[in-house]
Amino acid sequence: MTRLLGAIDQGTTSTRFIVFDRRGAIVASAQQEHRQIYPRPGWVEHDAEEIWRRTLEVIGAALASGGLAAADLAAVGVTNQRETTVLWDRRTGEPLHHALVWQDTRVNDLVAEHARAGGRDRFRARSGLPLASYFSAPKLQWLLEEVPGARAMASAGDALFGTIDSWLLWKLSGGPRGGAHLTDVTNASRTQLMSLHTLDWDPELLAAFAIPRAMLPRIVPSSGLCCEVRVPPLAGARIAGVLGDQQAALVGQACFEPGEAKCTYGTGCFLLMNTGETPVASRAGLLTTVAYQLAEQRPRYALEGSVAVAGALVQWLRDNLRLIASSAQIEPLAREAEDNGGVYFVPAFSGLYAPHWSATARGVIAGLTHHSRREHLARAVLEATAYQTHEVLEAMQRDSGIATRELRADGGMVVNELLMQFQADILGASVVRPRVTETTALGSAYAAGLAVGYWSGLEELAENWEADRRWTPAMSAERRAQLLAMWRKAVERSVGWID
C-alpha cells in the first residue's frame, strides 16, 4: 500500500500542500500567500486564477522537498475556505469576476431585502442558516445581476458556480476538457442553497435567490472517490476527500461523538460541536451545518458559531496601529500587564457573527482611562477572542443541552499560551492543543484515506489523536462573572452603531 496521503489546504490568506504519514505526522509541506483585494470598504475579493497558480506551486514545492511524486500518495484530500464564491466560464475556464470572499459585505442590502420578505430566519428550517452576507447564495445572486451576460450564460450551463473546492476540483480534473464539477455536502451546506434534509439543491431556495440549477455542482459525500487529477505535478493522483475547512478541523480533531467540540483560532474563530445524525435547530443564533458524510453513510451534523475577527485583530494592531512589529510580539507585550486594566475591545469591524448576527455593530474599545497603556490594549485584543468564543460555546450548550468539559483547540493562535490559559479561565473548562496542530489539512487527508482504505475507520483515527498541552481553569467563578459582565456591556455599546 502506498504509504502517504496529500492534502490541499486552501485558506483565506494562503494555500498549502501537506503530505502526512499514517500517524498524521507531516512529511513535507509548502505554503504560498495570495492577495487580499479590497475594492471598496467592506468588499473583499480574491483572484481565483491566482489561487489556482498558488495551488500548483505549493503541490510542486512540497513534493520536491520530500523527494516525492504523485504515485507516492494513496489519495489526496481538499479543504478550503468556505462560502467564498467563484463564477467562471465553463468553455474557457476563466473567472468572470474576482471571487467574493466570505468576509465580503457588499450584499448587505440584498440580504435585508430578502429578510423583509419573511424575516432573517425565513430559510433556516431548510438550510440551517440565517440570512447573512456571510453565505454564498446572496453573493452569487449579486454576481449574476452585476456581471454582464452572466445570467444568460448560467441558464445555459456555460457559467459555473462553485465554492473554492469546486473551482480547484474542476481545474485539477481537466477544466474545460472534461473537468468534474463537484462539491461536498459540507461546502454545499454553507451556500444557503442546499436542503439539510435531502442533501440536494433545494428548489425553493434556488427560486428565492434566482439561481439557475444548471450552473451548480453535483453534491457528493465528504469521503469518497471524487475524481482523478489530470494536471502535473499531481497527475494520476486520486481526490478522495473534500471538506470545508472548519468541518475538516472537526474531523482532524477526531470529534466523532455528539458533544465533542473544537475551535479553530485563525483569521476568524470557528467553533463546531458534533451533534450526531440529527440536525439541531438553533434557538441561540448558531448555524446548523453538515459536519461530514462518509461514503454510503448517514451524514453527521454540527452546530457552528463563527467569530469574524480573531487573529485578524492581532494583524490590525500590527498593521494599522503599529503597536507591534510582528504578530509574535502580542503575547510578551500583553504579559507586561497583570490584567486588561478595564479595557475591552469588541472587534465588530464588519458586524458581529454568532450568536448576535448584527450587521449594524462596529468595533468598540471601551474602558479607557489615563492608566491605560499599550499592554492593556494588547491584552484586550487577545481577550476579545476568548470572550467571543465563550459566547458561542455557551450558546451551543443551550441549544444542545450538552455541557462541554473540554474544548479542542487548533489554528495559528494556539501557540499563544496566554490566550489559551485565559480561554480556559473564561470558559471554566479545559482547553487542549493536539500534537498535530495542522488539523484542517489532516482532516481532509483523513477523509481521503478512509475512502481508499488507508485507515480502517473512525476508531483508528480517534486513536491517532494525542494531546500536546492542556490548560485547566485557574480563575474564580466570581472573577469570571465580573469580566463577562463587562464584556457584555461593551458588546451592547457596539451593536446598533450603524443606523
Description:
This protein is α/β, with parallel strands linked by helices. It contains 16 helices and 21 strands. It has helices at 48-65, 108-116, 124-127, 136-146, 150-155, 164-172, 185-188, 203-209, 245-252, 311-319, 330-335, 374-400, 417-427, 439-451, 458-464, 477-494, and strands at 4-10, 14-20, 26-33, 45-46, 73-80, 86-89, 99-100, 159-162, 182-184, 218-220, 223-228, 238-244, 261-265, 269-276, 287-292, 300-307, 344-346, 364-366, 406-410, 430-434, 467-471. A hairpin with a 7-residue loop joins strand 15 (287-292) and strand 16. Helix 9 crosses helix 14, helix 10 (311-319) runs antiparallel to helix 12 and helix 12 (374-400) packs across helix 13. The protein is globular.
Which parts are unreliable, with pLDDT below 50 for 5 consecutive residues or more? none
Shape: globular
- Protein structure class: alpha/beta
Largest sheet: 7 strands, mixed
Our Rg estimate from Cα atoms comes to 22 Å
- What fraction, in percent, of the residue positions are helical? 25-40%
Number of helices: 16
Overall pLDDT confidence = 93
Oligomer: single chain
DSSP, total strands: 21
Strand order of the largest sheet: 15-16-14-13-19-20-21
Report the end-to-end length measured between terminal Cα atoms: 61 Å
Q: Strand-residue fraction?
A: 15-25%
Summarize the model shown.
The protein has about 500 residues and is α/β, with parallel strands linked by helices. Helices cover about 35% and strands about 20% of the residues. Strands 15-16-14-13-19-20-21 form a 7-stranded mixed beta sheet. Strands 3-2-1-5-12-11 form a 6-stranded mixed beta sheet, sandwiched between helices.
